[in-house]
Amino acid sequence: MIQRNPTRSVRVGAVRVGAGHPVVVQSMCATPTRDVEATSAQAEALREAGAGIVRIAVDSRKEVEALGEIRQRTSANLSVDLQESYRLAAPVARHVDKIRYNPGHLWHHEKSRPVEDKVRFLADVAGENDCAMRIGVNCGSIDPRHQDRFRDDPVGAMVQSAAEHCEMLDAVGFTRYVVSLKDSDPAQVIEGNRRFAELRPDVPLHLGVTEAGLPPEGIIKTRIAFEQLLSRGIGDTIRVSLTLPNPRKPEEVRAGHQILDDIASGRFRSVPEFPNDRLNIISCPSCSRVENEKFVELAEEVRDLTRYAQDHAITIAVMGCRVNGPGETDDADLGLWCGPAFVNLKRGPRTLGAVPYDEILTRLKTEVDNLIAARTPRP
Description:
The protein is of the alpha/beta class.
């Protein structure tokens, strides 16, 4: 069982995030907000696909008017992305359940006004309209003050920006907020969220890899970031951001739920570090690249075979193809990546050999026994 971070509960419309509630999958409408019919239809399609929260961008008064009509046509829990104009929060708040703002954009707009005043304005609007808030930090739009201070540490700039805005909201007594720290590099997303979670374990986190790109590569990049974070108990809502034509946007939601289901079932593409001292068996999701259907059966057999070693801190990775197998098993104690006729057995990054499917379990048991013996202190 994954021990979730002890974040507080934040209500967003009819759903709650944090505090052990199920991880909420989100998505965002890609249709022009002024097109009421198309955006309402897409919001409903995303909701029906399983999106607990649907975000809509608003950047003008005309879009504010459209949002009012959209609200009447969908029962989705709506989040508004304020884009460049934070003052639009006042007219749109009554139509939505959450307000998202970007600290970098907030700094650039009305530079003569202190950032603290703008944050207080947003908190007042949200409080008056029963809205939650999201502090949405993107690596590509950091407040220049933090960019200068953390010139050689872009992740540090993200974390500092998020922490600073949390303190501003805390100072005015508004705690109904979540934070996101996003980048197009999964490694930066992992590091940023890990650092922030250590600093503020009470704040719910929304996870995402921005500009992830086209599927399937965009799903894989996002999956790896989510695996590394959710396996550590970090993350309360997620979004898979994919480059898709508008009719296919619900695929983002389905991909998010698939990733959550796979993590819950122990199916991974990367090798997470679970914070415990027990046997850890991971296996990748089955896909069209699997070259031998015995892969799924083998993963189940490995799990059954190694139950006797459950009290030992051993990670075994079972991968289904030559794309994930060679590299993604490097961090495991023992790795099995499956080819058409043989299973490639590894100890860490070192390959031990190609073993026939009907012999691999016997060979695996020998390697597990050897690991246990090597790690057991002699009397």
